[in-house]
UniProtKB/TrEMBL annotation, chain A:
The gene is glgD. Belongs to the bacterial/plant glucose-1-phosphate adenylyltransferase family. It comes from Paenibacillus sacheonensis. Residues 21-208 form the Nucleotidyl transferase domain. SUPFAM superfamilies: Nucleotide-diphospho-sugar transferases, Trimeric LpxA-like enzymes. This is Glucose-1-phosphate adenylyltransferase subunit GlgD. The keyword Nucleotidyltransferase applies. PANTHER family: GLUCOSE-1-PHOSPHATE ADENYLYLTRANSFERASE-RELATED, GLYCOGEN BIOSYNTHESIS PROTEIN GLGD. Keywords: Glycogen biosynthesis, Nucleotidyltransferase, Transferase. Gene3D superfamilies: Hexapeptide repeat proteins (2.160.10.10), Spore Coat Polysaccharide Biosynthesis Protein SpsA, Chain A (3.90.550.10).
């Protein structure tokens, strides 16, 4: 089914407190769940919902993003018609970098004008979820809303940084506040905004003309009384991942099989870039339990309660507990990890021991030798 | 006149084999499409060898049960063979103005596609088949072929004497020129076996195929007709020695053994070799999950598996589920196979999407034979105490 909606993944000024995990990459391409990048979740949701076209507004450190997305083939977005568009910042000088997303949208107004879709969905990359936008659009039309915001009620203890939302009994949003606000309602915004394309263009032009350039803060916050802004309540698995604590917590949640099954398959499968790794080899010294393991690993040690990305080597006698080890890292013989996050290609020397605590995992920089 | 795309060397990949000796595994499937090594199908090895050797034009000759194979191959993108000029082409038998026939033999299959080869006007044609597991640089074979100014060069490998009578056996002189060729001899006089990988100079091959087709007594087969005839008539027939891992997976035992060769701390065949990747179609599955109750050793496990039982010395394809209390030993489980709770699977090959229900037993320890469960079969109710094929 074709959905008359343009997907926009907005990476401009995304809230990012990921420390060294985003030192060399943008938030969208932080590795997650053993073989995914954060952006895969919203991108796959869009494709599975029937969107024919997705535009990614890149902002900074987007080398890894370009490499990951490629031509969009892995998400079936390599098409003759529509497909995937990556739009890097179209800036005149360095100062333009600091300007808000509306400015960047405006610089690409030709693109919006040409787009044949009636609606747009403006989303962020750091929401780990599996959303059916067709259902969101149905809600939007049924409620005759100007803007529909995808929200999650009672999200549990959110450790990521999220905006809170106050909703009245009719489902209309009365207040939205940034994560540090005092709003105590137990509804968070998933930063997914569905509206008509012509309303978006109007908001872009009007806001900029008033000297304001942030989509959510200026175009939406200030118009809650003029526009009908409705909340759509998402009831699937959600991880808001934009700081280390939330990254670690939501990664570890995937070890509960029912959460994994729900997130990766319902309502549609999550796609990612495929790599040519062979299946993982378990050697004679392998003792793995309660773990997620990607392809291309070689395991000859103990792995417990952990997530191994592709191509990780756990040598004989090594122990990996409560940890996340990204692609191609090596844990040397008799080395040991407890509550650690190793970025890509980290090498742990034999007999080395590293220890963090769940609330403050030890974080090793990409390509570090320890 | 239309422009011809001249290529130095193109490959013709014989993938029409029925694989009768693989029994239920090839009931609805061409042999080259049989799953292998947890993530591959047999044909991935030859296709990847082509790409890694710099051969970018491959004609794949299909005939028997081609549906799954065709869908799998697509336009060759998974192997980087979707090329503007050349690339992968599936070549089934086709109808001509004067009739048209099935491929009668390996040589006839190539003969019927002379037109395809002519479009590329190559200097050399590589003949390979989609039922062997090996990693080989065909460029080295081409070098040998050129150095010897050969008409045809046969890739050979030393096999154990006991198995020699299963292969095409060659004798060579000190310059590696073939002096004798016998297809599956009862009393082999050498243990140098043909790998079924041939490099031909195109004008020679063309001439031979046309003459072979005109010979009504010929069975139109490379090993039985073309090569013996060339030897008899004094053609320059040379060998190229290959020293790596090579396995013909034409039987249940050899298919099982080749899977087992991937295991162990120092495997006979290393698939984690970044300089010689074996490519395959990505099934897009999440990472495998190994539960707290699971125990996995000396095994190879692909994405999308859920392991809650014990797995020893086994190869598991994507989406396999092994339930709690079950034991899988010395076995090969193909995509989507499900082993319930408290079941045992020993020395077996379990076809794709087959189901072994709770408490069932498949296979026997210390048995010489490998138990086989066909694709989509549900094993329930009766205890398979005997080694059986279902």
């Amino acid at each position: 089914m074709k959905l008359p909606m343009l997907g926009i993944i907005n990476l401009i000024h995304e809230t990012d407190e990921m420390g060294t995990l985003t030192q060399g990459r943008c938030l969208a391409t932080v590795p997650f769940g053993g073989r995914y990048r954060l952006i895969d979740f919203v991108l796959s949701s869009m494709v599975n919902s029937g969107m024919q076209e997705v535009a990614v507004f890149a902002h900074t450190k987007y080398r890894s993003l370009m490499e990951h997305l490629g031509t969009g083939t892995n998400w079936d977005l390599h098409r003759k018609q529509n497909g995937l568009f990556v739009l890097p910042p179209a800036i005149e000088d360095q100062n333009d970098f600091a300007r808000g997303d509306l400015y960047h949208f405006y610089r690409n107004r030709d693109y919006f004008a040409r787009s044949p879709h009636e609606y747009v969905a403006i989303c962020r990359s750091h929401m780990v979820c599996n959303v059916d936008f067709e259902d969101v659009l149905r809600h939007h039309r049924d409620h005759e809303a100007d803007i529909t915001v995808v929200c999650k009620a009672n999200p549990g203890s959110i450790v990521g940084l999220a905006r809170k939302v106050r909703v009245d009994e009719t489902g209309r949003i009365k207040d939205i506040q940034d994560h540090y606000g005092r709003l105590s309602d137990d509804v968070v915004s998933m930063e997914m905004y569905i509206l008509r394309k012509d309303l978006l263009i109007d908001l872009i032009e009007t806001s900029l003309a008033q000297g304001r350039d942030h989509f959510v803060r200026h175009a939406v916050f200030s118009r809650l009384d003029q526009l009908k802004v409705s909340a759509y309540m998402y009831d699937g698995v959600l991880g808001i991942v934009n700081n280390i604590a939330s990254y670690f917590r939501h990664s570890m949640e995937l070890l509960q099989p029912e959460i994994g099954r729900e997130l990766f398959f319902r309502p549609g499968p999550i796609y990612s870039k495929g790599h040519g790794e062979p299946p993982t080899r378990f050697l004679t010294g392998a003792d793995v339990n309660h773990s997620l393991v990607a392809n291309g690993c070689e395991i000859d040690g103990i792995v417990e309660n952990s997530i191994l990305f592709r191509g990780v080597k756990v040598k004989k006698g090594a122990v990996v507990r409560n940890s996340i080890v990204m692609q191609n890292s090596v844990i040397g013989e008799d080395g040991s990890l407890e509550s650690c996050i190793l970025d890509k290609e980290v090498e742990i020397q034999p007999f080395q021991q590293l220890r963090g605590v769940p609330d403050m995992p030890f974080l090793a920089l990409k390509r570090k030798v320890i | 006149m239309s422009r011809k795309e001249n290529k130095e060397c193109i490959a013709m990949l014989l993938a029409g084999g029925e694989g009768r000796r693989l029994g239920v595994l090839t009931k609805d499937l061409a042999k080259p499409a049989v799953p292998f090594g947890g993530k591959y199908r047999i044909i991935d090895f030859t296709l990847s060898n082509c790409v890694n050797s710099g051969v970018d034009t491959v004609g794949v000759l299909t005939q028997y049960q081609p549906l799954v194979l065709n869908q799998y191959l697509g336009i060759g993108s998974s192997w980087g063979l979707d090329r503007r000029e050349g690339g992968m082409h599936v070549l089934p038998p086709y109808v001509r103005s004067k009739g048209g026939t099935w491929y009668k033999g390996t040589a006839n299959a190539i003969y019927q596609n002379l037109g395809f080869i002519e479009r590329y006007d190559p200097e050399y044609v590589l003949i390979i088949s989609g039922d062997h597991i090996y990693k080989m640089d065909y460029d080295l074979l081409l070098e040998t072929h050129k150095r010897n100014r050969a008409d045809a060069t046969i890739a050979v490998i030393t096999v154990p004497w006991a198995e020699a009578s299963r292969f095409g056996i060659l004798n060579v002189d000190d310059k590696a020129r073939v002096t004798e060729f016998a297809e599956k001899p009862k009393k082999p006089s050498s243990n140098l076996a043909s790998m079924g990988v041939y490099m031909f100079s195109w004008p020679v091959l063309r001439d031979r195929l046309i003459r072979d087709e005109a010979d009504s007594g010929s069975s139109n087969d490379f090993g039985k007709d073309i090569l013996p005839k060339m030897l008899e008539e004094g053609a320059r027939l040379f060998t190229h020695r290959f020293n790596g891992y090579w396995k013909d997976v034409g039987t249940i035992e050899s298919l099982w053994q080749a899977n087992m060769d991937l295991l162990g701390d120092k495997p006979g065949l290393d698939l984690n070799d970044h300089s010689w990747r074996i490519y395959s179609v990505c099934p897009n599955q999440p990472t495998q999950y190994i539960s707290p109750a699971a125990k996995v050793q000396s095994s190879m496990i692909n994405e999308g598996c859920t392991i809650e039982g014990e797995v020893h010395r086994s190869v598991l394809s994507h989406g396999v589920h092994v339930g709690e209390g079950s034991i899988v030993e010395d076995s090969v489980l193909m995509p989507g196979a499900v082993v319930g709770r408290g079941a045992r699977v020993i020395r077996a090959i379990v076809g794709d999407n087959a189901v072994i229900e709770d408490g069932m037993r498949v296979g026997r320890i210390n048995s010489d034979e490998i138990a086989v469960v066909g694709s989509g079969v549900r094993v329930s109710g009766q205890q398979l105490k005997e080694v059986e094929t279902v």
